Amino acid sequence: MNIKLNEQQEELANFREGYCLALASAGAGKTATILERTRRMVEEGINPKSILILTFSRKSVNDLKERMTKDIKDVNVSNFHSFCLQALRKSGDRRELTVLWQINKHFTDAYGDEFQFGELLSWISFQKSHMRKPTDKFVEKETTIKHDLRELYIKYEKFNNNHNFLDFDDMLLEFIKLVNSSPKLQKWFTNQYKYIMVDEHQDSSRVQNEILKAIAGSGNLVCIGDIKQSIYKFRGSDLSICLDFEKDWKGAKVIQLPTNYRSMKNIVDVSNDFIRPSFEQYDIYEDADSHNKAFGTITSSNDSVHIVQKVKELIDSGVQYKDIAILYRMNYIGGNYEIELREMGIPCTVIEDKPFLERMEIDVIMSYLKLAGDNTDFKSFSSVYNTPNRFLGKAFLKQVSTYSMKKEADLMSLGLKISMKNHEMRGYKDLCRMVNNIDINSSPSRQIDYIINQTDLIQYLKHNYDDAEEKIKAINLLQKIAGKYKTVKQFLFMVQNLNNKKEENAVQLMTVHKSKGLEFKHVIVGNVDNCIFPHEKATMDEERRLFYVAISRAEDGLYVYGDSIFAKEFYDIVNKEDEEFFEETNKRFK
Q1: Of 195, 167, 147, which Cα lies nearest the Cα of 42?
Q2: Whole-angstrom Cα distance, residue 532 to residue 526?
């Protein structure tokens, strides 16, 4: 069935031979256009198996496949990593994927328990996305690792080679090496995939661009993206790949898809005004153009404490819960909104992430508190019995599970009621000591400090997670929330009575990164504060693009809260737009 396209969409849907970069503004209907182009190609007699659509995540692949009609189901849709790994496997490469706990132990043994392994993995992945080997000059990336990075990178690669391991980034690098070393294989890819499309090209990395050069021998390549929404530089994406598309692919055509079908006119105008200074020096930049000429609601405030009140106002005015989204720069920030909304009985859901109280670093603390308040709580027991490592294995937990099925079984007085080896008894006694020392009639903040110190939780996070800083901030937020209550018992009572029921009609909570590609009638952007948004460790250009992503999710209403330079600039733009609107209106009625 044909869908109605505008003039620029028609140009893209009918493009067949050669190289093309399609620059699609937010809300431009790019996915519908991609699918319509694919449908027309198959209808014209092009073999669907000769069409390849590449994107960046499994979720994007699934979204595309779900929207495909029966007549184009045989088209190849994949993300880069799956595509490359499948090719490596077909070539006979049987290397296993890197076993992280093994290599983690290797580095811990060499550098001590405090070594920041998670941060090292992130740094190496970043270098590999830029195709930098251990002997090359590295691309600058901020890190707190004190050891020699080149030495660590060499050690990491040596371990993988010795154990015949292949890491996530190696899938792409080894694919390039495989294809470029075999003219016969390169010819096979050229003949197999005569028409290649790439979605979200603004987030392509150097290595992904080299993959395209290796397989697009047919000369028919269409890349779709939005330079204004390039937000993954910290993972290795390189915006210059999009900006320099015509240099890489000689004779390439650039098609603009500027029409925004999502947002009201003033929301599009404000978004344009905010992002334009970042791109007006580039010839390929164009403002978005709003299809809807009506005006929506835009407000800003320098105080984020009013956000939940704004949600309540919108609901009281008849807005559905699911039509409201709260966006934030850092993951941990959502916990505050989530707890407040649930306390007020407002249903909410955290998109593509765990609820705040179920996050690993929070769950450990909460489980200790809950177990101290209820010694029969097996779920909490199973979360913390071996945190920190007490050498209590699954066999021990299985015995406890069986025992816990008895009515009101006190898990802190097992004694001789289950069979324990000497080391298990020592570990169990340590657990009991720690839980029994938690005073539920005392200050929650003091007891949380005790749990953090006893488990050495902060050091554990720094050693194992590249986002340890954010996890530590989540713990600080828990301290702040719990600090509102006089005792642990009162705090646990509040948590127990939160509205945790999962409902389809719920306020949507997510980071700005997770919101990309989504749209909501009303968008609240929270905590646009100094050091948070823009983030103190990120580049200003990328933070501007990220803020653009946030404000361009809104259809009818946009509400920005904070006092950072972005919030102030947004406020000035909105005021200027309002003044121009009123001046234009007055002219018309004179």
Answers
A1: 195
A2: 10
Two tokens, residue 246:
């015509």
- Which stretches of 84-147 are assigned E, i.e. beta strand? 96-97
- Alpha carbon of residue 336 to chain centroid: 19
CA distances from residue 232 to 102, 237, 285, 410 in whole angstroms, order as listed = 29, 5, 19, 49
Sign of the CA dihedral running 571, 577, 578, 583? positive
List 79's β-bridge partners, or say none.
Answer: 55
What are the backbone dihedrals phi and psi of residue 77, each rounded to the nearest 5 degrees, phi first? -125, 125
Q: Are 546 and 229 in contact (CB under 8 A)?
A: no
For the cut 70, the answer to whether the pLDDT of residue 397 exceeds it is yes
DSSP letter for each residue of 454-505: HHTHHHHHHHH-TTHHHHHHHHHHHHHHHTTSSSHHHHHHHHHTS-----SS
Asked whether the beta carbons of 81 and 154 are under 8 A apart, the reply is no
**Alpha-carbon gap, residue 590 to 585, rounded angstroms:** 9
d(CA 225, CA 203) in angstroms, rounded, equals 8
Q: Tell me what pLDDT residue 370 has.
A: 96
Residues 69/39, Cβ–Cβ less than 8 Å: yes
- Render pLDDT for 530-563 as a digit per residue (tens, 0 to 9): 999 999 888 999 999 999 999 999 999 999 999 9
**Over residues 30-57, mean pLDDT:** 94
Over residues 279-309, the pLDDT tens digits come to 989 999 999 999 999 999 999 888 777 899 9
Q: Is 172 strand, coil or helix?
A: helix
pLDDT tens figures, 408-454: 788 888 876 788 888 889 999 999 999 999 999 999 999 999 999 99
CA distance 138 to 116: 19
Using only C-alpha atoms, the chain has a radius of gyration, in whole angstroms, of 27
Neighbouring-strand partners of residue 52? 76, 196
Enumerate the H helices of 219-359 as residue ranges.
240-243, 245-248, 265-279, 307-316, 334-343
| CA angle centred on 28, ends 25 and 33, rounded to 5° | 125
pTM (global) more than 0.70: yes
Query: 541, 278 in Cβ contact below 8 A?
Result: yes
Q: How many residues does the chain have?
A: 590
